[in-house]
Hints:
Bound molecules: iron/sulfur cluster
Strand content: 15-25%
Order of helices and strands: HEHEEHEEEEHHHHH
CATH architecture of the largest domain: 2-Layer Sandwich
CATH topology of the largest domain: Alpha-Beta Plaits
Number of helices: 8
Radius of gyration: 33 Å
Low-confidence stretches: none
Largest sheet: 3 strands, antiparallel
Structural class: alpha+beta
Oligomer: single chain
Distance between the termini: 99 Å
Number of domains: 2
Mean pLDDT: 87
Amino acid sequence: MIGKGLLKGLGITLKHGVEKPKTIQYPEQRPYLQERFRGCLEFDYKNCIVCGMCTKACPNNVLSFETAPIEGSKKKRLVSYTIDLQYCMFCNLCVEACPTNTLFFVHDFELSTYRRDEIKKVYIPPALTQVDAGGGQAELIPQDALEPDREAEAEAKRLKQLQAMKTALSKGGQKVLAKYVDTEEDAAVLANLLQADEKKRDKMAALIVDDKEKARKVAQAFVAKERKTQAGGEEK
Ligand code: SF4
Ligand code: SF4
């Protein structure tokens, strides 16, 4: 029949025309990746015991590492670990061979670089230091683990200031509050209000410690509202 092929072709076009699109607008739209998708190979230096199983398992010599002897021990420590991703075929053999789950794949699949040497990933762990693990045993831990936790220190300092501010406000704190309102009279109104209302007192103390500018605005709003309430009470 004449036109049979044409009709068949139109039928196929129509069928695909009403189908849900199978492509996405990359890079604006991101693809859905399965949980076990193998993107970039990553290395977590903390777990590495420099056993060399990964380098033996890799068929493409992608992996290499350098070690140095640990003083007073037969063990070695990791100095650097290199993954030359340009030769990796994502076969997973190294991940399976590693006894400590140090190597793993992540979902990052955009691995192209402008320069060939940029695709090589070199991990240099922070220096290890020897600490007493108790029972006459020594343990090696990364140097940065011994450094003080600045965030925790800052939070402890903040809590101390907050407690001191709450105590000051619960006792009146008119002098402190005078910095956040326009007149001494306003400071007295605010001090009385905060002494009577614990919730407001806590809020004000937190603002004075964390955000002085906002504390000023809130203090003035408290005073204005309190004055309005007082004026309403007097009128009645
Ligand atoms: S995934 Fe395969 S090719 Fe890539 S580093 Fe591991 S063993 Fe080598
Ligand atoms: S197999 Fe794992 S633990 Fe052993 S050297 Fe390789 S990454 Fe480190």
